[in-house]
């Protein structure tokens, strides 16, 4: 609720899937295969080959990074002000003079 009353910035990231180079993929396979060998030291050759073929040849790369601003929401601002400055932002301003009320478009 505070964010809506005061506005905020956030970052939006877009990813693109690209194919890895052969060397990069080989390094990834070697690293993953070392982990696999530690977990399953008695694995058969077919299991190792199956594991190697399950490693993807693509990766996600950041394509675009955008910082966006979420603007204020009027009702949230009103509640935020009413809660923090109740003397100035209450609904019933019975203590106003006629001149003050007319300047805000209110008639009593």
Describe this entry's structure for a reader:
- The chain is an alpha+beta fold.
- The chain contains 5 helices and 2 strands; from the N terminus they run αβααβαα.
- The longest helix has 18 residues, at about 20-40.
- The radius of gyration is 31 Å and the shape is rod-shaped.
| Rg, alpha carbons | 31 Å
Content-based structural category: alpha+beta
Question: Quick one: biggest sheet?
Answer: 2 strands, antiparallel
How many H/I helices?
5
User: In terms of per-residue confidence, which ranges show pLDDT below 50 for 5 or more consecutive residues?
Assistant: none
- Secondary-structure element pattern, one letter each: HEHHEHH
- The amount of helix comes to 40-55%
Question: How is the quaternary structure best described?
Answer: single chain
End-to-end separation in angstroms reads 33 Å
Across the major sheet, the strand order is: 1-2
Approximately what portion of the residues adopt beta-strand conformation? Answer: 15-25%
Give the overall form.
rod-shaped
Mean model confidence by pLDDT: 82
Counting DSSP E segments of at least 2 residues, the number of strands comes to: 2
Describe this structure in a few short sentences.
Helix content is 46%, strand content 23%. With 108 residues, it is of the alpha+beta class.
Draw up the topology in text:
Elements (H helix, E strand, L loop, with lengths): L1 H5 L1 E12 L2 H18 L5 H10 L3 E13 L3 H11 L13 H6 L5
Antiparallel strand pairs: 1-2
